[in-house]
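for the recovery benchmark. tokens below, seq after
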């Protein structure tokens, strides 16, 4: 196994699509608190990707914890590969 491959960690990421609302931030905080309290419980990095309207708020709430915050595209269509629409 190469040194680079040995340094890689799996990433578990949840994409909220366009369904996230501000009241759902409590779920992100619960995941963050659980992982903080159980350090080393999983051998992976964890990321939540909320809609753009919640990215800044979630990043502030989770800034000192183990859960990373990612971004995503949004589009008015219910499905399809419509990237870059933000």
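predicted aa per position
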């Amino acid at each position: 196994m190469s040194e680079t491959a040995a340094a890689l960690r799996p990433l578990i990421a949840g994409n909220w699509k366009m369904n996230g609302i501000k009241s759902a931030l409590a779920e992100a905080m619960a995941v963050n608190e659980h992982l903080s309290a159980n350090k080393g419980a999983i051998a992976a990095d964890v990321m939540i990707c909320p809609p753009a309207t919640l990215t800044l708020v979630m990043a502030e709430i989770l800034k000192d914890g183990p859960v990373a915050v990612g971004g995503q595209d949004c589009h008015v269509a219910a499905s399809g590969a419509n990237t870059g629409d933000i």
